[in-house]
Design brief:
Two copies of one chain form a homodimer. With 192 residues, chain A is mainly α. Chain A has nine helices and no strands. The interface between A and B is large, with 43 and 43 residues. Chain A binds a DNA duplex (30 and 30 nucleotides) through helix 1 and helix 3.
Amino acid sequence: MAVQTRTLKTRAKLIEAAQNRINEAGYEALRVEDVVKDAGVAKGTFFAHFKDKDALMDHLIGGEIHAFLDEVELMEPPKSVDEILDALMPSFEFMTQERFVFDVILRHSGAAQNSEIGAIAQTFIRNGTVMAHWLAHGPFRKDIDPALMADGVGAFQIQALALHFCTAHNGFSIRDRMETYLNAWLLPKPSG
Amino acid sequence: MAVQTRTLKTRAKLIEAAQNRINEAGYEALRVEDVVKDAGVAKGTFFAHFKDKDALMDHLIGGEIHAFLDEVELMEPPKSVDEILDALMPSFEFMTQERFVFDVILRHSGAAQNSEIGAIAQTFIRNGTVMAHWLAHGPFRKDIDPALMADGVGAFQIQALALHFCTAHNGFSIRDRMETYLNAWLLPKPSG
DNA sequence: CTATGAAAGTGACCATGGTCAATTTATGGA
DNA sequence: TCCATAAATTGACCATGGTCACTTTCATAG
């Protein structure tokens, strides 16, 4: 049997309720119990729709990041590290709004450990694709595969975000740190 | 008043009980209730010694990693990417034994968000120090600060470990992936 | 040796995510 | 229209991490 309209409606109610709560009080404060109460369904229903609370978080946070990527994909390939940073900063802002959000992203960035790939993991893949295309067409090092370059940008992204939450490493903004990383990664000058 | 002997004994009992359980059934299966039962103390006592379960994990996992670093610090500075990998692999093995372990490490790698720095975060700092020293004295690129190089190695480490748990990225071993990363990061050849 | 205040320890209790046997609702065929 | 089956939903219940008012133990001043 195909999925019923009812199912889609319930799912929509759950997601809307969750989003509303998050808009009010942030991601960390979200409680499954509140969501099902607002959505007017039983607790068990929630878990029929989402494997666990984290799956909902993956869906919602992944959705936000996908929206940023929609913007990013419309851009011209950047011609400098600075232009790359301009493109990345909006999503960085989102990812650092709450430590909790970044933790969810971290947990899910390496893709689902088992089953199918989640929304956040998808954004990383999508990000890699866009980035590889950009890097292949920009004024950057040519000695390595653009996919590898993109992979590295992803790694430095995580690093910069992680250090942002680290009390020992303040004083540098994420953008400044990323700029240092990307210059060293994309524009190495080992001879000079 | 100074800390009492009693305190140290209780703490030791808790840690020993936890370590035994972990040796039996792994990190993920650890239950606070089991630990306090084995240690012969009340649940509340556990939380008087550790802020939360994660703090115990940080202590135990951080301890293991510190032991690897003890070995690493005795080594001669490596003369190639391959030798760096030889030095890193043992701890990689430990970090990938359980997805759960890697998640704990990820959560704590960026140092404590608030209060004082945890054991795992310390290992990252220590690792950075050793690595910077190595890189400064090895046949690697000279156009950037060794500390920055070390920082990058850390970022690629996380990336390689994360991808190891990603079903979409199998076929490459961690070591192979790290080798690719480190060659591109430490020995760039943008001209050729 | 005893009183006293601080440190350590206790366990009933709470918060919250997650499960599952039972129930209700939808769908398609006879 | 009615039945059989699958899908969807329910909510009591469980697992487990974490809290806190209270009790016990310790160290030291007098």
